[in-house]
Amino acid sequence: MTPAQFAANMTKASNYGFAKQNNAIAQAGLDFQEAQGSNFDRAEDSQGNAWPAHAPLTIALYGPHPLLILSGDMKRAATGGAGAVFDIRVGKKKSVVILGISKVAIPYAWKHQHGSGRIPRRQFFYLPRQARTPLINGFRRTVIAKVKADLKWP
User: Fold this and answer.
1) Phi, psi dihedral angles at 119 (to 5 degrees)
2) From CA 96, how far away is CA 85, in angstroms rounded?
3) Which residue in 126, 108, 103, 105 sits closest to 118, CA to CA?
4) Which of 6, 25, 101, 104 is the S-S candidate for 77 at Cβ 3.0 to 4.6 Å?
5) What residue spans define the domains of the chain?
6) pLDDT higher than 70, residue 148
7) Beta partners for 90?
């Protein structure tokens, strides 16, 4: 699931009329960001394909290092640290969820995510399949707790 698909689903959920879901949306966004760390560890795209290895020139310039983790800045941004973008804009009629990585703070992130020229595609910013069920279950628990609290149910 891409960040755009995830954000669209969270935007829909935040617009339900029975209860504003801002806490559930915020927690789901944090869970999404946390799941990104495992993407760097697995070194594979959303389809399970291994990322292309480093080019010999990259190894000559920087030495051997984990794929996409030279300084750690991109992984930190993907997992909610400096350079992360996560915003919930709540309106009276519509809410919007924004999730991503700042193109100003980490300008090379999207070159790696999508591939660009000599840089091969190494997709790292997506919700891995094994993280979806726990995220949905957590979202469900938070929504139910909110509804119970709003309606003063036991």
Assistant:
1) -90, 115
2) 13
3) 108
4) 101
5) 3-151
6) yes
7) 95
